Amino acid sequence: MDLSSLARPQALRGGSTGALGAHAARRRSVQLLRPRRPTFRCSVEAAKQQVQGTLAAEAEAARKECFGVFCTTYDLEADEKTKSWKKLVNVSVSGAAGMISNHLLFKLASGEVFGQDQPIALKLLGSERSLQALEGVAMELEDSLYPLLREVSIGIDPYVIFEDADWALLIGAKPRGPGVERAALLDINGQIFAEQGKALNAVASRNVKVIVVGNPCNTNALICLKNAPNLPAKNFHALTRLDENRAKCQLALKAGVFYDKISNMTIWGNHSTTQVPDFLNAKINGRPVKEVIKDTKWLEEDFTITVQKRGGVLIQKWGRSSAASTAVSIVDAMRSLVTPTPEGDWFSTGVYTTGNPYGIAEDIVFSMPCRSKGRW
Ligand code: LMR
Protein backbone atom coordinates (compact mmCIF):
# COMPACT_ATOMS: atom_id res chain seq x y z
CA MET A 1 0.00 0.00 0.00
CA ASP A 2 1.28 3.47 -0.83
CA LEU A 3 0.96 5.08 2.60
CA SER A 4 1.68 8.56 1.30
CA SER A 5 -1.49 8.45 -0.81
CA LEU A 6 -3.64 8.15 2.30
CA ALA A 7 -5.01 11.65 2.64
CA ARG A 8 -8.24 13.49 2.62
CA PRO A 9 -9.22 15.24 -0.58
CA GLN A 10 -7.55 18.60 -1.08
CA ALA A 11 -10.74 20.52 -0.37
CA LEU A 12 -10.99 19.03 3.11
CA ARG A 13 -7.37 19.60 4.04
CA GLY A 14 -6.13 22.63 5.90
CA GLY A 15 -4.03 23.61 2.92
CA SER A 16 -1.43 22.38 0.49
CA THR A 17 2.15 21.66 1.54
CA GLY A 18 4.87 24.28 1.44
CA ALA A 19 5.24 27.63 3.08
CA LEU A 20 2.65 29.30 0.89
CA GLY A 21 0.21 26.49 1.53
CA ALA A 22 0.76 26.85 5.25
CA HIS A 23 0.15 30.56 5.00
CA ALA A 24 -3.05 30.07 3.10
CA ALA A 25 -4.08 27.41 5.59
CA ARG A 26 -3.45 29.78 8.47
CA ARG A 27 -5.72 32.35 6.89
CA ARG A 28 -8.39 29.77 6.17
CA SER A 29 -8.32 28.50 9.73
CA VAL A 30 -8.64 31.99 11.10
CA GLN A 31 -11.66 32.43 8.88
CA LEU A 32 -13.08 29.16 10.14
CA LEU A 33 -12.73 30.29 13.70
CA ARG A 34 -13.97 33.79 13.14
CA PRO A 35 -16.57 33.95 10.39
CA ARG A 36 -16.90 37.48 8.97
CA ARG A 37 -20.26 39.06 8.23
CA PRO A 38 -20.64 39.86 4.53
CA THR A 39 -20.79 43.60 3.73
CA PHE A 40 -21.87 45.16 0.42
CA ARG A 41 -20.42 48.27 -1.21
CA CYS A 42 -20.62 49.56 -4.76
CA SER A 43 -17.58 51.66 -5.71
CA VAL A 44 -13.97 50.72 -6.56
CA GLU A 45 -12.79 52.87 -3.64
CA ALA A 46 -15.17 51.10 -1.31
CA ALA A 47 -13.97 47.72 -2.61
CA LYS A 48 -10.36 48.77 -2.01
CA GLN A 49 -11.17 49.83 1.53
CA GLN A 50 -12.95 46.59 2.10
CA VAL A 51 -9.90 44.56 0.95
CA GLN A 52 -7.61 46.60 3.19
CA GLY A 53 -10.01 46.22 6.08
CA THR A 54 -10.19 42.49 5.48
CA LEU A 55 -6.39 42.13 5.45
CA ALA A 56 -6.09 44.14 8.66
CA ALA A 57 -8.78 42.04 10.30
CA GLU A 58 -7.02 38.86 9.22
CA ALA A 59 -3.69 40.07 10.56
CA GLU A 60 -5.39 40.95 13.81
CA ALA A 61 -7.13 37.58 13.94
CA ALA A 62 -3.84 35.76 13.19
CA ARG A 63 -2.24 37.55 16.15
CA LYS A 64 -5.10 36.35 18.30
CA GLU A 65 -4.46 32.63 17.71
CA CYS A 66 -2.89 32.89 21.14
CA PHE A 67 -5.35 32.42 23.97
CA GLY A 68 -6.30 34.91 26.68
CA VAL A 69 -3.52 35.75 29.09
CA PHE A 70 -1.07 33.98 26.79
CA CYS A 71 -1.40 36.83 24.28
CA THR A 72 0.60 39.01 26.67
CA THR A 73 4.03 39.85 25.32
CA TYR A 74 7.01 39.38 27.59
CA ASP A 75 10.78 39.29 27.41
CA LEU A 76 12.26 36.34 29.27
CA GLU A 77 15.76 37.75 28.96
CA ALA A 78 14.82 41.04 30.56
CA ASP A 79 13.56 39.41 33.72
CA GLU A 80 16.06 38.48 36.44
CA LYS A 81 14.14 35.30 37.32
CA THR A 82 13.87 33.97 33.79
CA LYS A 83 16.92 35.24 31.95
CA SER A 84 18.88 32.01 32.49
CA TRP A 85 16.05 29.89 31.11
CA LYS A 86 16.37 27.91 27.89
CA LYS A 87 14.76 28.95 24.62
CA LEU A 88 10.99 28.38 24.42
CA VAL A 89 10.03 24.88 23.28
CA ASN A 90 6.93 24.47 21.08
CA VAL A 91 4.80 21.44 21.87
CA SER A 92 1.86 20.72 19.58
CA VAL A 93 -0.78 18.34 20.85
CA SER A 94 -3.61 16.87 18.79
CA GLY A 95 -6.76 15.62 20.50
CA ALA A 96 -6.08 18.38 22.97
CA ALA A 97 -9.64 18.50 24.30
CA GLY A 98 -9.64 14.77 25.08
CA MET A 99 -9.14 12.84 28.29
CA ILE A 100 -5.48 11.92 27.76
CA SER A 101 -4.56 15.52 27.03
CA ASN A 102 -6.48 16.68 30.04
CA HIS A 103 -3.90 14.91 32.17
CA LEU A 104 -0.93 15.45 29.90
CA LEU A 105 -1.09 19.21 29.30
CA PHE A 106 -0.87 20.05 32.97
CA LYS A 107 2.12 17.77 33.43
CA LEU A 108 3.88 19.40 30.48
CA ALA A 109 3.10 22.89 31.76
CA SER A 110 4.40 22.07 35.24
CA GLY A 111 7.90 21.31 33.95
CA GLU A 112 7.69 17.58 34.65
CA VAL A 113 9.17 16.67 31.30
CA PHE A 114 11.67 19.36 30.39
CA GLY A 115 12.67 20.73 33.78
CA GLN A 116 12.23 23.99 35.66
CA ASP A 117 14.30 26.15 33.31
CA GLN A 118 12.45 25.24 30.12
CA PRO A 119 9.62 27.59 29.15
CA ILE A 120 6.98 25.98 27.01
CA ALA A 121 4.42 26.93 24.37
CA LEU A 122 1.43 24.63 24.02
CA LYS A 123 -0.30 24.56 20.64
CA LEU A 124 -3.54 22.73 20.93
CA LEU A 125 -5.28 21.06 18.02
CA GLY A 126 -8.93 20.14 18.22
CA SER A 127 -11.78 19.65 15.81
CA GLU A 128 -14.66 21.95 14.94
CA ARG A 129 -16.78 19.89 17.32
CA SER A 130 -14.32 20.21 20.21
CA LEU A 131 -13.38 23.86 19.78
CA GLN A 132 -15.44 25.05 22.69
CA ALA A 133 -14.04 22.33 24.94
CA LEU A 134 -10.58 23.38 23.79
CA GLU A 135 -11.28 26.88 25.03
CA GLY A 136 -12.23 25.33 28.37
CA VAL A 137 -8.88 23.53 28.48
CA ALA A 138 -7.04 26.76 27.67
CA MET A 139 -8.98 28.56 30.40
CA GLU A 140 -7.93 25.95 32.95
CA LEU A 141 -4.34 26.33 31.82
CA GLU A 142 -4.67 30.10 32.31
CA ASP A 143 -6.05 29.62 35.80
CA SER A 144 -3.22 27.28 36.79
CA LEU A 145 -0.61 30.07 36.69
CA TYR A 146 2.24 27.83 35.59
CA PRO A 147 5.39 29.99 35.47
CA LEU A 148 6.89 27.96 32.61
CA LEU A 149 3.81 28.07 30.40
CA ARG A 150 4.36 31.14 28.25
CA GLU A 151 2.16 30.59 25.23
CA VAL A 152 -1.04 28.72 24.49
CA SER A 153 -2.80 28.71 21.16
CA ILE A 154 -5.79 26.70 20.03
CA GLY A 155 -7.11 25.82 16.59
CA ILE A 156 -8.44 23.20 14.25
CA ASP A 157 -5.94 23.40 11.43
CA PRO A 158 -2.81 21.23 11.72
CA TYR A 159 -0.99 23.53 9.29
CA VAL A 160 -1.35 26.30 11.84
CA ILE A 161 -1.00 24.38 15.08
CA PHE A 162 2.06 22.39 13.96
CA GLU A 163 3.96 25.49 12.85
CA ASP A 164 7.52 25.36 14.27
CA ALA A 165 6.60 22.44 16.52
CA ASP A 166 9.60 20.97 18.34
CA TRP A 167 7.39 18.15 19.58
CA ALA A 168 4.17 16.82 18.11
CA LEU A 169 2.13 14.58 20.38
CA LEU A 170 -0.46 13.00 18.13
CA ILE A 171 -3.22 11.82 20.39
CA GLY A 172 -6.40 12.77 18.54
CA ALA A 173 -8.03 9.76 16.89
CA LYS A 174 -11.19 7.73 17.09
CA PRO A 175 -10.87 5.46 20.14
CA ARG A 176 -12.02 1.84 20.16
CA GLY A 177 -14.98 0.62 22.12
CA PRO A 178 -15.37 -2.61 24.14
CA GLY A 179 -14.55 -5.76 22.15
CA VAL A 180 -12.97 -3.89 19.22
CA GLU A 181 -9.34 -4.48 18.17
CA ARG A 182 -7.15 -1.43 17.57
CA ALA A 183 -6.44 -2.45 13.96
CA ALA A 184 -10.12 -1.94 13.15
CA LEU A 185 -9.60 1.81 13.55
CA LEU A 186 -7.09 2.02 10.73
CA ASP A 187 -9.50 3.09 7.99
CA ILE A 188 -10.64 6.22 9.76
CA ASN A 189 -7.54 7.05 11.79
CA GLY A 190 -5.09 6.40 8.95
CA GLN A 191 -6.58 9.41 7.13
CA ILE A 192 -5.96 11.66 10.10
CA PHE A 193 -2.32 10.66 10.38
CA ALA A 194 -1.68 11.03 6.66
CA GLU A 195 -3.01 14.57 6.83
CA GLN A 196 -1.04 15.37 9.96
CA GLY A 197 2.14 13.93 8.45
CA LYS A 198 1.74 16.28 5.50
CA ALA A 199 1.15 19.22 7.79
CA LEU A 200 4.22 18.41 9.92
CA ASN A 201 6.26 18.03 6.76
CA ALA A 202 5.19 21.50 5.65
CA VAL A 203 5.41 23.58 8.81
CA ALA A 204 7.03 21.85 11.81
CA SER A 205 10.61 22.34 13.00
CA ARG A 206 12.93 20.26 10.82
CA ASN A 207 13.93 18.29 13.92
CA VAL A 208 10.44 17.81 15.35
CA LYS A 209 10.01 14.73 17.55
CA VAL A 210 6.70 13.01 16.93
CA ILE A 211 5.01 10.62 19.33
CA VAL A 212 2.01 8.85 17.87
CA VAL A 213 -0.53 7.76 20.44
CA GLY A 214 -3.78 7.40 18.44
CA ASN A 215 -4.47 3.76 17.57
CA PRO A 216 -3.32 1.68 15.83
CA CYS A 217 -0.26 3.71 16.76
CA ASN A 218 2.46 1.70 14.99
CA THR A 219 0.72 1.86 11.62
CA ASN A 220 -0.36 5.45 12.19
CA ALA A 221 3.26 6.39 12.93
CA LEU A 222 4.33 4.72 9.69
CA ILE A 223 1.61 6.51 7.71
CA CYS A 224 2.60 9.79 9.34
CA LEU A 225 6.31 9.48 8.58
CA LYS A 226 5.67 8.34 5.01
CA ASN A 227 3.71 11.55 4.53
CA ALA A 228 6.54 13.62 5.97
CA PRO A 229 9.47 12.77 3.69
CA ASN A 230 11.40 15.92 4.62
CA LEU A 231 11.56 15.03 8.32
CA PRO A 232 13.94 12.42 9.78
CA ALA A 233 12.09 9.08 10.05
CA LYS A 234 14.01 8.31 13.25
CA ASN A 235 12.13 11.16 14.96
CA PHE A 236 8.79 9.33 14.72
CA HIS A 237 7.74 7.10 17.62
CA ALA A 238 4.76 4.90 18.35
CA LEU A 239 3.92 4.90 22.04
CA THR A 240 4.64 1.51 23.61
CA ARG A 241 5.79 2.98 26.90
CA LEU A 242 2.34 2.31 28.33
CA ASP A 243 2.87 -1.41 27.65
CA GLU A 244 6.34 -1.24 29.22
CA ASN A 245 4.87 0.34 32.34
CA ARG A 246 2.09 -2.24 32.46
CA ALA A 247 4.61 -5.09 32.12
CA LYS A 248 6.79 -3.66 34.89
CA CYS A 249 3.76 -3.39 37.14
CA GLN A 250 2.79 -7.04 36.57
CA LEU A 251 6.32 -8.30 37.25
CA ALA A 252 6.53 -6.21 40.43
CA LEU A 253 3.20 -7.56 41.57
CA LYS A 254 4.21 -11.19 41.02
CA ALA A 255 7.67 -10.78 42.57
CA GLY A 256 6.34 -8.81 45.54
CA VAL A 257 8.70 -5.88 44.98
CA PHE A 258 8.09 -2.21 44.30
CA TYR A 259 8.02 -1.44 40.58
CA ASP A 260 11.15 0.72 40.61
CA LYS A 261 13.09 -2.54 41.01
CA ILE A 262 12.14 -3.68 37.50
CA SER A 263 14.46 -2.69 34.65
CA ASN A 264 15.40 -3.64 31.10
CA MET A 265 11.81 -4.18 30.05
CA THR A 266 11.34 -4.49 26.32
CA ILE A 267 8.10 -4.47 24.45
CA TRP A 268 8.66 -6.01 21.03
CA GLY A 269 6.40 -5.22 18.10
CA ASN A 270 3.04 -3.51 18.05
CA HIS A 271 0.94 -1.75 20.64
CA SER A 272 -1.63 -4.53 20.15
CA THR A 273 -2.45 -8.04 21.31
CA THR A 274 0.45 -9.34 19.18
CA GLN A 275 3.08 -7.49 21.21
CA VAL A 276 5.71 -9.48 23.10
CA PRO A 277 6.60 -8.20 26.57
CA ASP A 278 10.09 -9.66 27.01
CA PHE A 279 10.49 -11.27 30.44
CA LEU A 280 13.66 -13.11 29.30
CA ASN A 281 15.79 -9.96 29.21
CA ALA A 282 14.02 -7.97 31.91
CA LYS A 283 15.53 -7.74 35.39
CA ILE A 284 14.25 -7.57 38.94
CA ASN A 285 16.70 -5.98 41.36
CA GLY A 286 19.35 -6.44 38.66
CA ARG A 287 18.74 -10.21 38.35
CA PRO A 288 17.11 -12.00 35.41
CA VAL A 289 13.37 -12.31 35.93
CA LYS A 290 13.47 -16.10 35.67
CA GLU A 291 15.82 -16.29 38.65
CA VAL A 292 13.32 -14.39 40.77
CA ILE A 293 9.97 -15.61 39.41
CA LYS A 294 10.09 -19.41 39.19
CA ASP A 295 6.54 -19.77 37.91
CA THR A 296 7.40 -20.30 34.24
CA LYS A 297 3.81 -21.04 33.24
CA TRP A 298 2.72 -17.66 34.64
CA LEU A 299 5.52 -15.90 32.80
CA GLU A 300 4.91 -17.61 29.48
CA GLU A 301 1.14 -17.42 29.49
CA ASP A 302 -0.57 -15.19 32.02
CA PHE A 303 1.99 -12.38 32.09
CA THR A 304 2.08 -11.94 28.33
CA ILE A 305 -1.69 -12.07 27.90
CA THR A 306 -2.29 -9.70 30.81
CA VAL A 307 -0.02 -7.06 29.29
CA GLN A 308 -1.36 -7.58 25.78
CA LYS A 309 -4.96 -7.23 26.90
CA ARG A 310 -4.64 -4.64 29.64
CA GLY A 311 -6.01 -1.81 27.48
CA GLY A 312 -9.06 -3.85 26.48
CA VAL A 313 -9.80 -4.88 30.07
CA LEU A 314 -9.59 -1.24 31.13
CA ILE A 315 -12.11 -0.30 28.47
CA GLN A 316 -14.48 -2.97 29.78
CA LYS A 317 -14.17 -1.54 33.30
CA TRP A 318 -14.22 2.16 32.53
CA GLY A 319 -16.38 2.16 29.43
CA ARG A 320 -13.63 4.26 27.82
CA SER A 321 -9.93 3.81 27.22
CA SER A 322 -7.11 4.57 29.61
CA ALA A 323 -6.30 8.25 29.96
CA ALA A 324 -4.23 9.11 33.05
CA SER A 325 -1.81 6.18 32.69
CA THR A 326 -1.43 6.94 28.99
CA ALA A 327 -0.57 10.55 29.80
CA VAL A 328 1.99 9.38 32.36
CA SER A 329 3.53 7.05 29.80
CA ILE A 330 3.80 9.88 27.25
CA VAL A 331 5.68 11.91 29.84
CA ASP A 332 7.91 8.89 30.55
CA ALA A 333 8.54 8.40 26.84
CA MET A 334 9.47 12.05 26.31
CA ARG A 335 11.73 12.09 29.35
CA SER A 336 13.48 8.95 28.17
CA LEU A 337 14.25 10.61 24.87
CA VAL A 338 15.68 13.81 26.37
CA THR A 339 17.62 12.37 29.31
CA PRO A 340 20.57 9.96 29.16
CA THR A 341 19.40 6.40 29.74
CA PRO A 342 20.89 4.93 32.96
CA GLU A 343 23.87 2.67 32.27
CA GLY A 344 22.82 -0.88 31.44
CA ASP A 345 19.12 -0.09 31.12
CA TRP A 346 16.88 0.73 28.15
CA PHE A 347 13.33 1.75 27.32
CA SER A 348 10.81 0.67 24.71
CA THR A 349 9.49 2.75 21.89
CA GLY A 350 8.12 2.01 18.44
CA VAL A 351 10.69 3.19 15.89
CA TYR A 352 11.17 3.06 12.15
CA THR A 353 13.14 -0.05 11.30
CA THR A 354 16.11 0.65 9.14
CA GLY A 355 19.29 -1.34 9.67
CA ASN A 356 18.16 -2.69 13.06
CA PRO A 357 20.40 -5.36 14.61
CA TYR A 358 17.56 -7.78 15.42
CA GLY A 359 16.62 -8.99 11.95
CA ILE A 360 13.24 -7.28 12.14
CA ALA A 361 11.70 -6.48 8.75
CA GLU A 362 12.77 -3.15 7.32
CA ASP A 363 10.45 -0.23 6.61
CA ILE A 364 7.93 -0.72 9.42
CA VAL A 365 7.42 0.85 12.85
CA PHE A 366 8.28 -1.69 15.51
CA SER A 367 8.84 -1.42 19.26
CA MET A 368 12.26 -2.46 20.52
CA PRO A 369 14.78 -1.59 23.24
CA CYS A 370 16.32 1.87 22.78
CA ARG A 371 18.78 4.08 24.60
CA SER A 372 19.22 7.84 24.51
CA LYS A 373 22.30 9.96 25.09
CA GLY A 374 20.01 12.78 26.13
CA ARG A 375 20.30 14.61 22.86
CA TRP A 376 18.08 13.44 20.11
C1 LMR B 1 -4.56 1.42 25.79
O1 LMR B 1 -3.76 0.50 25.59
O2 LMR B 1 -5.06 1.62 26.90
C2 LMR B 1 -4.94 2.31 24.65
O3 LMR B 1 -4.27 1.91 23.50
C3 LMR B 1 -6.40 2.35 24.42
C4 LMR B 1 -6.90 1.03 23.88
O4 LMR B 1 -7.59 1.05 22.86
O5 LMR B 1 -6.62 0.00 24.47
Automatic annotation (TrEMBL):
Top-level enzyme category: oxidoreductase
Catalyzed reactions per annotation: (S)-malate + NADP(+) = oxaloacetate + NADPH + H(+); (S)-malate + NAD(+) = oxaloacetate + NADH + H(+)
EC number(s) from the headed UniProt entry: 1.1.1.37
Subunit structure: Homodimer.
Residues in Lactate/malate dehydrogenase C-terminal domain copies: 240-373
Chief place of localization: plastid
GO cellular component: chloroplast
Taxonomic superkingdom: Eukaryota
Source organism of this protein record: Aegilops tauschii subsp. strangulata (Goatgrass)
Record protein name field: Malate dehydrogenase
Function: The chloroplastic, NADP-dependent form is essential for the photosynthesis C4 cycle, which allows plants to circumvent the problem of photorespiration. In C4 plants, NADP-MDH activity acts to convert oxaloacetate to malate in chloroplasts of mesophyll cells for transport to the bundle sheath cells.
Keyword annotations of the record: Chloroplast, Disulfide bond, NAD, NADP, Oxidoreductase, Plastid, Transit peptide, Tricarboxylic acid cycle
GO MF entries: L-malate dehydrogenase (NAD+) activity; L-malate dehydrogenase (NADP+) activity
GO biological process, one term: tricarboxylic acid cycle
Keyword field contains Kinase: no
Domain Lactate/malate dehydrogenase N-terminal: 90-237
Family the entry assigns: Belongs to the LDH/MDH superfamily. MDH type 2 family.
Region spans: Disordered: 1-22
Compartments where found: Plastid, Chloroplast
Name of one Pfam family that matches: Ldh_1_C
UniProt cross-references to NCBIfam families, sorted A to Z: Malate-DH_plant, MalateDH-SF1, PRK05442.1
